[in-house]
From TrEMBL, chain A:
One Gene Ontology CC term in the entry: nuclear exosome (RNase complex)
Domain of life: Eukaryota
Keyword Chaperone applies: no
Alphabetical UniProt keywords: Exosome, RNA-binding
Molecular function per GO: RNA binding
Disordered, as annotated region: 1-40, 176-203
GO BP annotations listed: CUT catabolic process; exonucleolytic trimming to generate mature 3'-end of 5.8S rRNA from tricistronic rRNA transcript (SSU-rRNA, 5.8S rRNA, LSU-rRNA); nuclear polyadenylation-dependent rRNA catabolic process; poly(A)-dependent snoRNA 3'-end processing; TRAMP-dependent tRNA surveillance pathway; U4 snRNA 3'-end processing
Pfam families, sorted: S1_RRP4
Protein name stated in the entry: Exosome complex component rrp4
From TrEMBL, chain B:
Protein name in UniProt: Exosome complex component MTR3
Domain of life: Eukaryota
One Gene Ontology term, aspect cellular component: cytoplasmic exosome (RNase complex)
Similarity remark: Belongs to the RNase PH family.
Gene Ontology process terms (BP): nuclear mRNA surveillance; poly(A)-dependent snoRNA 3'-end processing; rRNA catabolic process; rRNA processing; U4 snRNA 3'-end processing
GO MF terms, alphabetically ordered: RNA binding
Organism: Penicillium diatomitis
InterPro entries in the record: ExoRNase_PH_dom1, PNPase/RNase_PH_dom_sf, Ribosomal_Su5_D2-typ_SF, RNase_PH
Localization terms from the record: Cytoplasm; Nucleus
Pfam family, one: RNase_PH
Exoribonuclease phosphorolytic domain segment(s): 42-207
TrEMBL record, chain C:
GO process terms (BP): exonucleolytic trimming to generate mature 3'-end of 5.8S rRNA from tricistronic rRNA transcript (SSU-rRNA, 5.8S rRNA, LSU-rRNA); nuclear mRNA surveillance; nuclear polyadenylation-dependent rRNA catabolic process; rRNA catabolic process; TRAMP-dependent tRNA surveillance pathway; U1 snRNA 3'-end processing; U4 snRNA 3'-end processing; U5 snRNA 3'-end processing
UniProt keyword annotation of Amino-acid biosynthesis present: no
Localisation per UniProt entry: Cytoplasm; Nucleus, Nucleolus
One GO CC term on file: nuclear exosome (RNase complex)
Family statement drawn from the similarity comment of this UniProt entry: Belongs to the RNase PH family.
Domain of life: Eukaryota
Protein name (Swiss-Prot/TrEMBL): Ribosomal RNA-processing protein 42
Record-level Gene Ontology MF annotations: mRNA 3'-UTR AU-rich region binding
Region of interest called Disordered, as start-end residue ranges on this chain: 87-112
Keyword tags: Cytoplasm, Exosome
């Protein structure tokens, strides 16, 4: 078991020297637009919505049609759920890393203060700003607006947002972020430059219908929540039944009181008791997502669920194979690398 | 020959003082290797005093007792070269002080340690820029201390600990060839001294700690007594490398007696050939670690006394 | 970056939230069956890809890559250098007269080589080369390299690597080992760098010496007849070790393993998250004892656990934002039997203090014992084709 050392695998990249001599020969030096070579015919069809199929490289003329306007940057932080890590605390706001080129800000005015929605923000809240979120905390929030320069402004004014606990964090290549690595490098001071471009732009979290859902896991794991942040940050945790518990107690608690009870737990950094079975299934889910990411498959509810089911099936298959060797079967059984990950991919795709 | 015959070239590096036959024929002290006079588990005496540097928030000075041969050579010098050296070092603590504005938030005290040999500390002159050995010592010291300091009591603050080594322990007897056993065994004694002195200085600066942390060294040395078979080794505490022909392995620990915990452990060399007493079935490295812990317990008694003195002095002042 | 500096020997301050740290610690400290975030068993290493002799301009080189994309390249270069003679050697030479070959026993110490002939530099992106981490790592790896003395009297490796570098009394090889990490480290880079250095040294060749005795050395310029720095047992199987079961009788470079303890569990090859919650971190260097066949310990160093620098969690009962929502009796601090600290379950406390002697002893034992992790790693490395 111990250690696996493999020879390097080279993707059989055969350098292709396309015989494009015909093209270059045919280009007349007067027609300098045509100098861009093979793409010329496609470019002519921009008007026919075939832009998406054409690939242009920097420096190529996309269009000379004056009715097209220049874009302002290609990436916008989408207005939606994202998972973030607090970076620095300032006097009235938090600067947070959202895997975007710029740090986003979360103003103190954009969070629900404990003690009810209608409570006024006071200067004492500013002084004890670290008791809400502090450096290194993981927070789930929603993008409220995007400034001119591309920096996002966030809010947590909902019961589903707040500090994350009872689970594990993963970072995968986001749809637009600065390309978080596949190995849970989370943002923070000094780690912004830490991400190698390992993801190569493939795969990543896809914005889909549901970004937050609950899985009823096998092996006695109970319910597990998955949050897919649009920025490629993922949180997998034990299902929080706080809302349910609170609503069951609504009988004698007023609506505002209930709100208060739930909202207080969003500032907690204390984990609930989590049984080992749940922890195992959370680890399995995290690896399933890693497998998807490393092979460049998009991450959404459908793929995560099928990868999870596949991993369970692979486990059964492997379990059948070496039934005689009970001990070694359990050692590192949950590690999904190499052959197991390939099998999972076969089942998913 | 490659050498340039046209001019008289100096030696490519420093030379050693000539050893004259007259000295050799004396047969006695001057050019003989120093011999350990202590019992295997007997430690050298330590002089430790705190509060010597008034500008620092905490300071300490530590000195090892000179070995018997060194004391004899000082009293009655026969040679220009002292047979061994005795560790002397000073430690200053500055802080807790606020971190610079530009520094990132830290929920714990930020510890920085510097260990520097004075240029005249060793037989060979040291440069003013810290070399890799000195940086390495700094890291070891930091590891040892960070486990003892209760860091969360001072968020957003810094603590600078500087150790200046005035006289370093030799890595080997000066007369031995530099390649006879070249591992820097003396560095381990220096580290043990640094840990003990820094702990006293930290206590002198009133920084909260889990326990006073003391350094101790133990080594497996080749048995030279002659009455046992060749190749046997002996476990000795607080070894002076100048007193032994061959040290096989050595270990230094930073140890907190109250919790029976080791915060810093540095063991190197071949400890597999330890010939321990009958009935002792510990492996060589375990015996070494235990030996170093025993040495640290010894240093701890001195340390506790020095810290008590430091407190009494303050009480006396107020 | 200033954060990385303060974390000295631990690569960097972990950026994990208190809730994550607590979750990880509890998972990893589950008695007997720790749950690692990637599902590995406690002694299981991450799979890696390795190749040797990738740099034609060096005497030996290797590359190792982890699945997460971190890679290390090591190049070994050797230069001939004149030995500075010590008094003792000079004196014995004068006494011995013109025959330098007699008195084999007494001269072994004199020609034993010197540790400073092996020079090591480690380049880690994001760190200056005089930062604590690269200095600490290179000292740690160099120390076990030059300290590994071969016990096999008949081999060329008497006196270990240092002895091998001696050409004759006046000349020796100087070895430069340059380690390059290609990306900023995601975990503590020690295992990666150590394994890569091991393979690079295995593939290192020195040109065949043509001169004899005390002549100024000159060498065969045919690279094909060059000799391995770490000689192989027999030239026929020299290039490739196909089966790992046959025990090699030649000296091997040492390997440094990173071992952590979390609660009562001992875990190998920790990733970034795991090392962030470790109670104690040890770097243990081992090599194979050529005579006895078992493993030999070369050095142990404690590494500053990054868990000491982490952000603490706040128990609900002390959280000012939860006043009234939780009864104070909800969290009762319990004594963690391993650390001896009072802790509220589910709340992260930065680690304090050191390691118990029994824990350290157990960690070393897990590495050294027969069929233990050390043997597995060395056998794995022997399976790598050294071309």
């Amino acid at each position: 078991m111990g250690i696996t050392i493999l020879p390097p695998v080279s993707d059989d990249i055969i350098p292709r020297h396309e015989d494009d001599s015909d093209d270059s020969m045919s280009v007349d030096s007067d027609e300098d637009v045509e100098m861009s070579g093979l793409r010329a015919p496609k470019r002519a069809r921009i008007g026919n919505q075939t832009l998406s199929t054409g690939v242009v490289t920097p420096g190529e003329v996309v269009t000379d049609d004056p009715q097209w306007m220049r874009g302002h940057g290609t990436y916008m932080t989408p207005l939606s759920t994202s998972i973030i890590a607090t970076v620095a605390v300032q006097s009235k706001r938090w600067k947070v890393d959202v895997a975007a080129p710029l740090l986003a800000q979360l103003p103190l005015s954009a969070i629900n203060l404990p003690g009810g929605i209608l409570r006024r923000r006071t200067s004492s809240d500013e002084l004890q700003i670290r008791t809400f979120f502090s450096e290194g905390d993981l927070v789930v929030a929603e993008v409220q607006s995007v400034h001119q320069d591309g920096a996002a402004s966030l809010h947590t004014r909902s019961l589903k947002y707040g500090k994350l606990r009872n689970g594990v964090f993963l970072a995968v290549t986001g749809t637009g972020g600065s390309g978080a690595s596949s190995n849970s490098t989370k943002g923070g001071v000094g780690s912004n430059s830490l991400r190698p471009g390992a993801g190569s732009g493939m795969g990543g979290v896809v914005r889909s219908r549901r970004q937050v859902w609950t899985i009823n896991t096998h092996n006695g794991g109970g319910e597990v929540d998955v949050i897919l942040g649009v920025n490629g940050y993922i949180w997998i945790s034990k299902h929080a039944d706080g809302t349910a518990a609170a609503s069951s107690a609504t009988e004698n608690v007023s609506i505002t009181r209930m709100e208060e009870m739930v909202s207080t737990s969003i500032y907690s950094s204390q984990n609930d008791e989590i049984i080992p079975q749940t922890r195992r299934e959370i680890a399995r889910l995290a690896q399933c997502i890693q497998v998807l990411v490393q092979s460049g498959i998009r991450v959404d509810e459908e793929t995560v669920m099928s990868a999870y089911e596949a991993s369970l099936q692979v486990d059964l298959e492997v379990g059948d194979e070496d039934d005689e060797d009970e001990d070694s079967r359990h050692e590192g059984r949950e590690y999904l690398e190499g052959a197991k990950s390939r099998r999972i991919l076969e089942l998913v795709v | 020959m490659m050498a340039d015959r046209r001019r008289v070239n100096g030696p490519p590096s420093g030379t050693r003082p000539a050893v004259f036959t007259a000295d050799l024929q004396l047969g006695a002290s001057a050019t003989d290797r120093a011999q350990r006079q202590r019992q295997p588990s007997e430690l050298r005496k330590i002089f430790l005093k705190t509060g010597l540097i008034p500008t620092a928030s905490g300071s300490s000075y530590l000195e090892f007792e000179p070995s018997a041969s060194l004391a004899a050579a000082r009293a009655n010098p026969k040679s220009l070269i002292p047979p061994s050296s005795a560790l002397k070092l000073a430690c200053t603590v500055h802080g807790p002080k606020p971190l610079p504005r530009s520094a990132a938030f830290s929920p714990n005290i930020v510890l920085t340690t510097h260990v520097k040999y004075a240029p005249f500390a060793a037989r060979q002159r040291k440069g003013h820029i810290r070399d890799s050995g000195e940086r390495d010592l700094g890291v070891h010291l930091e590891t040892a201390l960070r486990g003892a300091i209760i860091a969360e009591r001072w968020p957003k603050s810094g603590l600078d600990i500087t150790v200046t080594i005035l006289e370093a322990e030799d890595d080997r007897w000066w007369g031995s060839a530099p390649d006879s056993h070249d591992a820097s065994w003396g560095m381990m004694n220096v580290l043990a001294g640094c840990i003990t002195a820094a702990s006293a200085a930290i206590a002198d600066a009133h920084i909260d700690c889990l326990d006073l942390i003391a350094g101790g060294v133990a080594a497996l040395v080749a048995d030279e007594s002659g009455n046992s078979a060749a190749g046997t080794t002996k476990l000795m505490l607080d070894t002076d490398p100048a007193e032994h022909r061959s040290i096989l392995s050595a270990c230094v620990v930073g140890y907190m007696p109250a919790r029976d915990e080791i915060t810093e452990l540095w063991l190197k060399g071949d400890s597999s050939k330890a010939s321990l007493e009958e009935g002792d079935d510990r492996s060589g490295h375990d015996a070494l670690i235990d030996g170093a812990v025993d040495a640290a317990r010894g240093a701890h008694t001195v340390l506790a006394e020095a810290v008590r003195e430091s407190l009494l002095r303050i009480v006396g002042q107020s | 970056m200033s954060n990385q500096r303060q974390a000295s020997s631990a690569s960097q301050v972990p950026h994990l939230s208190p809730a994550e740290l607590s979750y990880l610690y509890t998972s990893l400290s589950l008695p007997k069956t720790p749950i690692r975030p990637d599902g590995r068993s406690p002694t299981q290493f991450r799979p890696l890809t390795a190749e040797t002799n990738i740099l034609p301009g060096t005497n030996g080189s290797a590359r190792i890559g982890f699945a997460d994309g971190t890679q290390a390249i090591v190049g070994v270069k050797a230069e001939v250098e004149k030995t500075i003679l010590s008094n003792e050697t000079l004196a014995s030479e004068r006494g011995a007269g013109p025959e330098p070959t007699d008195q084999e026993g007494s001269t072994t110490a004199a020609v034993g080589g010197h540790g400073s002939w092996v020079q090591m530099s480690i380049e880690i992106p994001g760190f200056r080369d005089d930062d604590a981490l690269p200095v600490f790592l290179s000292e740690m790896m160099r120390e076990s390299l030059v300290g590994a003395v071969g016990t096999d009297e008949n081999s060329d490796m008497t006196g270990g690597l240092k002895g091998r570098l001696v050409i004759n009394k006046r000349w020796h090889w100087r070895l430069y080992i340059d380690v390059l990490l290609l990306s900023q480290p995601l975990a503590y880079p020690l295992p990666l760098l150590s394994l890569t250095t091991h393979l690079a040294l295995l593939s290192t060749k020195l040109p065949k010496l043509k001169s004899q005795g005390e002549e100024d050395p000159f060498f065969d310029d045919d690279w094909a007849v060059a000799e391995y720095l770490y000689p192989r047992s027999s030239p026929s199987t020299g290039a490739k070790i196909s089966s790992s079961s046959s025990r090699p009788s030649f000296v091997r470079p040492p390997v440094t393993l990173l071992v952590i303890s979390v609660g009562e569990n001992i875990i190998f090859d920790p990733n970034r998250e795991e090392i962030a919650v470790a109670d104690a971190v040890l770097a243990i260097s081992i090599t194979r004892d050529t005579q006895a066949g078992h493993l030999r310990l070369l050095s142990i160093r404690t590494v500053d656990p990054p868990s000491r620098l982490t952000q603490p969690g706040v128990p609900n009962s002390e959280n000012v934002n939860m006043l009234g929502a939780v009864a104070p009796t909800d969290d009762i601090a319990v004594l963690n039997p391993v650390t001896g600290e009072e802790e509220v379950p589910g709340v992260w406390r930065p680690r304090r203090g050191g390691a118990k002697r029994s824990v350290i002893s157990e960690m070393v034992k897990t590495v050294l014992k027969k069929g233990g992790v050390g043997e597995e790693v060395l056998e794995g490395l022997e399976g790598v084709e050294v071309s």
